Amino acid sequence: MATTDLTAATFETTISDNEIVLVDFWASWCGPCRQFAPVFEKASEENSDIVFAKVDTEAEQSLAAAANITSIPTLMAFKGGTLVFAQPGALPAPALGELIGAVRALDVEKAKAEAAAQSGS
Description:
There is one protein chain. This protein has one domain: Glutaredoxin (3-Layer(aba) Sandwich), CATH 3.40.30.10. The protein is globular, with a radius of gyration of 14 Å. The protein has a five-stranded mixed β-sheet with strand order 1-3-2-4-5, with helices on both faces. About 45% of the residues lie in helices and about 25% in strands. By secondary structure, it is an alpha/beta fold. The longest helix has 16 residues, at about 30-45. InterPro entries: Thioredoxin, Thioredoxin-like_sf, Thioredoxin_CS, Thioredoxin_domain. This is Thioredoxin. It holds the Pfam family Thioredoxin. It comes from Nocardioides salarius.
């Protein structure tokens, strides 16, 4: 599956309607973004059950601001509609593969319960 371009209008539904979504926040003028793009594209072809989405931070400035993007590229991973990973910087292919494996293996409900227990709520 190729990558999908997200906008402010499609962001929430894409996150909530798919089990796993990886979102690359990027800009055309960003060198590291251009280096990461083929790695992200290749991973999308190898993991057809995951939605790989891109947000052009220049075209979608309000969305980037709402997501608190301060550095690009920034990669976010959502599972079951929950943000489970967010990190700026271009990942090499092996690290992206490890991240995908970790997100697949993550039990979001268990993680939420553990976080709630630790915070005392």
